[in-house]
Amino acid sequence: MMRGGWLRAYALLYLVFLFAPILLLPLFAFNDASVIAFPLTGFTTHWFQELWTTEALHQALRNSLVIAVLNSLIATLLGVCAARATSGPAFPGKRGILGFIMLPLVLPEIVIAVSLLVVVRQVLDLQLSNVTVILAHVVISLPFSIAILNGAFANLDPAFEEAAQDLGETRWGAFRLVTLPLVFPGIISSLLICFIISLDDFVLAQFLTGANPTLPVYIYGLTRFVKSLPVIMALGTLLVALSITLLVIAEYFRRRGVARAGLKDSGGFL
Amino acid sequence: MNVQSKPPATPLIQLRGIHKHYGDYHALRGIDLEIRQGEFFSLLGPSGCGKTTLLRTIAGFEQPSSGQLVIDGKDMSGVPPNHRPTNMVFQSYAIFPHLTVAENVGFGLRRDPRPKEQRARAVAEALEMVGLGGYGNRAAHALSGGQRQRVALARALILKPKVLLLDEPLSALDKKLRENMQVELIRLQRNVGITFILVTHDQEEALVMSDRIAVMFEGAIGQMADPETLYRRPNSRRVAEFIGKMNLLPAEVGMEGNRIVVEVAGLGRGAVEPDQAPGGVIEGNSTVGIRPETLSLLFPGETTDRRVAEGVVDEVVYYGDMTYYDVRIPGVEEPLTISMKNLIGRPVLDVGTPTKVAWDERSLVVLSR
Fold first, then answer.
1. Staple A198 to which of A60, A137, A182, B168, CB 3.0 to 4.6 Å?
2. Closest residue of B to A184, CA-based?
3. Residue A245 sits in a domain of what CATH number?
4. Which of chain B's residues have a Cβ under 8 Å away from the Cβ of A181?
5. Tens digit of pLDDT for each residue in B257-275?
6. What is the edge-to-edge ordering of all strands in the sheet holding B25-35?
7. Interface-testing mutation among A160, A166, A183, A260, with chain B (most B C-beta atoms within 10 A)
């Protein structure tokens, strides 16, 4: 009993430590003072109004959204191909290739960022732009996409596609009519996760962004001006809300996928 | 056991010298096979013998490394599964979980040019045929094992294939359901008149259901025959031991003119007919087989004009309808197993009871290989 109690207290403290700072965001976002400090002085929606009218911020947001959408589409498409290939029969070098794709998961982002910058500027001699940011985001999103989709593909009976072919479908038809609907929740889940990863990324974008900064890079630029801090708090509040919403939707689709395949949930990606 | 009309001259399926290699592994070693229209044919063997690989080769999911496969007069090399006149019931049934029962059964009719109502009627009829009338709107993942099996059957049969391939279709069902489904499958096969090829490791299932059986070991066919021949006249020790229970006794086999003479350890000397040596005769030290039910124990007070050997009851296994006795006979290392019907008034003997075993020369099988 005693041991269980300590463990519970420890877990609780751990969660408070992790998430309490995030709770400060909405607190100061609605606080009627341009200084981030206690005590709170009153309620205002002024900072949110300022968000609404800052043109540069809108530009950065649009930029981020375009990058995030394209990144999630490309990473998920590649993820589907990789997950399907690795869920099938073994082929030479399968483990090696998969390990290679998953590597960015354990590499420090700053290392990836610097090496990509060297490759883009020195080796390929390309201009930094949204395209380079998207490429970098695909590199770090792909491991997550594959992790999610591997789960979806691993749940499939390999006889499903064979049965569809046996009943007159081509290989593509079998994939489209049977496999795709069954892994569809996994695809949605992957799209959302990759979207968030791209939207949240600061390090890679900071190094590889061109003339137009992404939202996190723009926010970082703002932090140099003390009086814009409450605006950042307001923006942060919105971003946190968006991230949580997307994660919940992603997990909902993953669970629905498991249920649809008539399987037990073995604990998911999240 | 199935009474069949005389088959037409050309077989529906011909396999000639089919080999399959997976790297170093030789999965199929020269399979030659002909299967007639309307036949219920079984591929029987232990796991890893290549029976499923052979079935998948016929379906088109595996390409033979060499050899020829002809179905209905057409060479099948390079023909993908979706263009073959075969349909398959998978071991896992592979019922599509995101579709309803009717959508599963109607899956193969997607390319059917008939109007929607006619296709729906075909689906309803197929479900009726397997005893699932009215189940069309059920979700596929909510079905029981037996129902999934019926859906898989209906889904495969709706396309009216020339050949239905069944990969261990009953292995996932419990004993009682399995026995029911065996009878139903036989009845279904007679009704639709489609050639069935069944893969199974269950010798009893193969004996009950098949017109003919190919027993496979290590990628090759050990013996191919109707169930009765296979059971009564196996051509090798392996086949004899794989199908049913067989007593194997060391024996001296020799030819005296045209007669085959055997000196069986513990039983004595006898002569057998050529059909009792289906695997051929190799003179000298050999093995002779005899089935438990062709032997009988003489209960106290019984006499017989059959050949008799004396022994002692070593083990008794009571099955209700039958009792299996292991009887030790002087001069034989392994005890003989004898099955006796538990008729009214017949006692069950105790271990250690001295007894006599009656046997006939006609029940012996010479197993030189």
1. A137
2. B98
3. 1.10.3720.10
4. 98
5. 888 899 999 888 988 988 8
6. B25-35, B13-22, B66-71, B74-75
7. A166
Query: Considering the entire predicted model, what is its pTM?
Result: 0.81
Q: Which string of b and e fits A139-166 if b means at least 16 CB within 10 Å? A: bbbbbbbbbbbbbbbebbbebbbbbbbb
Query: Which among B98, B155, B156 is the nearest to A260, CB-wise?
Result: B98
A39 domain residue, yes or no:
no
Q: Which CATH number fits domain B13-232: 3.30.420.10, 3.40.50.300, 1.10.10.1590, 1.10.1520.10?
A: 3.40.50.300
> Is the CB of A260 less than 8 angstroms away from the CB of B97?
yes
Q: Is B12 exposed, middle or buried (0-12, 13-18, 19+ CB in 10 A)?
A: buried
| Domain of residue A164, residue span | 55-260
Q: What is the pLDDT of residues B292-302, one digit of tens each?
A: 999 999 988 88
Identity of the residue in B61, B87, B98 whose CB atom sits nearest the CB atom of A167: B87
The pLDDT score that the predictor gives to residue A161 is: 93
How much is the average pLDDT of A219-225?
A: 82
Tell me which CATH code domain B246-366 carries: 2.40.50.140
pLDDT at A119 over 50: yes
Place of tokens 């008799």: B308
Is the ipTM higher than 0.90? The answer is no
Interface probe with A: pick from B25, B107, B151, B157, most Cβ of A within 10 Å:
B107
Domain membership flag for residue A82 = yes
Is A262 in contact with B97 (Cβ distance < 8 A)? yes
B91, closest residue in chain A (CA to CA): A159
A 117-176 near B (Cβ less than 8 A): 157, 159-160, 162-171
Which tens digit of pLDDT belongs to each residue from A11-35? 889 988 888 888 888 887 787 777 7
Q: Name the domain count of chain A.
A: 1
The partner residue sitting opposite B92, judged by closest CB among A157, A170, A171, is A157
Instruction: For chain B, give every domain's residue range.
Output: 13-232, 246-366
Please report whether residue A145 resides in a domain: yes
Q: Are strands B40-44 and B212-217 parallel, antiparallel or unpaired?
A: parallel
Report CA-CA distances (Å) from B293 to B3, B304, B336: 25, 16, 11
Residue A86, both tokens: 């690795």
Task: With cut-offs at 50, 70 and 90, classify the pLDDT of residue A44.
Answer: confident
- pLDDT above 90 covers a percentage of chain B that reads 68
A199 belongs to a structural domain: yes
Contact criterion met (CB below 8 Å) for B154 and B126: yes
The side-by-side arrangement of strands in the sheet containing B296-298 is B296-298, B354-359, B307-318, B322-328, B336-341
Q: Tell me which residue in B88, B98, B159 faces A182 most closely, judged by beta carbons.
A: B98
